[in-house]
Amino acid sequence: MSVENENDDLTNPSTSPLVHFGSEVRIERERLGLSRKELGAEAHCGYSLVAKIEAGERVPALEFAEACDRVFPNANGRFVRLWPLALRYAFPPWFRRYVELEAKATVVRMFHPTLLPGLVQTRPYAEAVLRTGRPSNLEDLLTARMERQRILTREDGPARLWLVLNESALRNPVGDSATMRAQLEHLRDLAETPRHRVQLVPQRKANNLVVSPFGLLGFKEGADVVHVDGFPRGYILAEEADVAAAQDAYDLLTAMAAPPDETADMINTVAKDCYS
Question: Domain range spanning residue 220?
Answer without folding.
Answer: 91-275
